[in-house]
Amino acid sequence: MATKKTTKTTTAKAKTAPAKKATAAKSTTVAKAAKPAVPETADLFECACEAKPAKKCAAKAEKTEKKTRVTFRVRAEIGSKVFLAGCFNNWDPTAKQMEDKKGTGEYTCCLNLPKGKYEYKFVIDGVWCADGECPDWVQNDMGSMNSVKIVD
After folding, report:
1. Are 7 and 51 in the same domain?
2. Residue 128 to residue 141: CA distance in whole angstroms
3. Of 63, 97, 115, which residue sits at a domain end?
């Protein structure tokens, strides 16, 4: 009898296992039936993702625009705090600090600028100063002069 019970148990297990496979097959079929709704949503995501590469391309275009290294120089007392402000940094009087690398009172800084016309001033110890060595100046809205650098 023990043999029969083992056989019955084995047979019962065998019958149960195919039933689980059938259930798994049904759920796979249901998942496949639900997939057509996903591509419509995926199309929306693809559009959003396509916008990102376009922005990257625009950023690359800006980066690939030819820029020229421009050096700005001004003489001031040794130990002064000297900054460069202009239309290229929204006239921020502390955005670009200039350095006196040799300790001689000649402050310099370099910017990579694309072609164009740039107005600028030096801010020396808090005082706005036009570049005395620059031959091109224009009057500004404050009633003083801005130096002009043309980058070709």
Report:
1. yes
2. 14
3. 63
